[in-house]
Amino acid sequence: MTHKRWGWGGLAMVAALGTLSAAPGFLGLSGMEPVNGKEHAELGLAPDQAGLRIEEVMPDGPAAAAGLQAGDVILLTNAEEVAKPELFAKRVRQTGSGNPLALSFLRDGKKQEMTVTLGAPPAQPKMGGIEGKKAPPWNVAQWKNLPEGKERLEVSDLAGKAVYLYCFQSW
Known about the structure:
Elements: H1 8-18, E1 29-30, E2 33-34, H2 37-43, E3 52-53, E4 56-57, H3 62-66, E5 73-77, E6 80-81, H4 85-95, E7 100-107, E8 110-117
Antiparallel strand pairs: 1-4, 2-3, 3-5, 5-6, 5-7, 7-8
């Protein structure tokens, strides 16, 4: 009988998989901007302290339910500084739906703290009435290495393959 050994990497992967949430976390904020140098003085922050100003709070999201407002400046999430909106969004997603997120923030020059229970991201809206309609034929001239005997590709031909799709039109 042969036994397979898992190295530390395998155990770490199992441990990480065990902590994943069913859905990414969602707070319901958009348009966050890093606090700039001039604002540090106005807000009473140290020049090197990070902060993200909330531009918009989505009306039905967890942030609105908890009382966050446009103009609040988030200083810490779960006791860690956040300097970039991308990092903040990543922390929210990784915390997971249904889990608490501790926030320290400034409102009207006063430091406040709260814990928000994150929600699940809202369902994606339908895309301009095209959902459920048949896609136009693919331009075969743009495909390289077509399977033998194929003059064109169908969507089913792409199952299980990595596809790079470049669009010129925005939706």
